[in-house]
Amino acid sequence: MTPTQPAGPRRSRLKAEERRASILAAAIEVFAEHGYQRGKVSAVAARLGVTEPVVFQNFGSKAALFAATVDLAAEQICSEFAGAAAAGFPAGALLAEITSPAHLDHLHAQGSIGVLFADASSSAEPVVAQAGQAAVRRIAETIAGILRLGQAAGDVRPGPDPDAAAWLLVSLISARPLREAAIPDGDRQRLEGAIAAMAADLLLSPAD
Q1: Among 111, 82, 121, 118, which Cα is nearest to 98's?
Q2: Domains of the chain with bracketed CATH
Q3: What is the pLDDT of residues 22-36, one digit of tens each?
């Protein structure tokens, strides 16, 4: 009697998921470093030691690949925020960190995932633009959840509507490149610090 062989489909499906995950990880690096227009699928493939057709077999097009990287980047950010809140990190301190000038500088620096959202929001390709819009909505919803936790704990002011406040913070974060381009260099550090302080005064409860 021939021994029964283990079923194969589950094993190959897991391999496919792992392959897609490795492609996405490489794609995030390439697109964060070079942007959507200059980032090449061939560079993604080269980082993995595979050919371009392997990437296209898994994602179909460069636009679909970039949209998937935007989805993953949003998932990573939201998981990090939610994980910190669930671990007991005070909501007020977390929000202060999110809006700090140092964090905003890092988020929008070349090579950071903030580049992905900026490119997606300005893209004329529907699949990319839709992914960018969904990602920003997801981040806003996560921040609103953190605000609610902070209001319940008493370190976020009870008055502001959490959803509106979340969109205010998202607007503050996403407008960082505009401010960098327009504010004179000598005033930028002072004004960025003042903007972060104003957001804290608006949303965070005064320290006892």
Answers
A1: 82
A2: 64-203 (1.10.357)
A3: 999 999 999 999 999
Instruction: Tell me how long the chain is.
Output: 208
Q: Please, are residues 74 and 114 in contact by the beta-carbon 8 Å criterion?
A: no
- For the stretch 21-74, pLDDT in tens is 999 999 999 999 999 999 999 999 999 999 999 999 999 999 999 999 999 999
Q: Which two tokens stand for residue 150?
A: 């902070």
Q: Is 168 exposed, middle or buried (0-12, 13-18, 19+ CB in 10 A)?
A: middle
What lies within 8 Å, CB to CB, of 4 at 6+ separation is: none
Contacts of 77 by beta carbon, 8 Å cutoff, 6+ apart: 113, 139, 142
**Which H, E and C letters describe 6-41, residue by residue?**
CCCHHHHHHHHHHHHHHHHHHHHHHHHHHHHHHCCH
At 132 the pLDDT is 94
Q: In sequence order, what are the residues at sequence separation of 6 or more whose Cβ sits closer than 8 angstroms to the Cβ of residue 3?
A: none
207 pLDDT band, cuts 50/70/90, is low
pTM of the shown model? 0.85
State which of 35-44, 74-83, 100-109 shows the largest mean pLDDT.
35-44
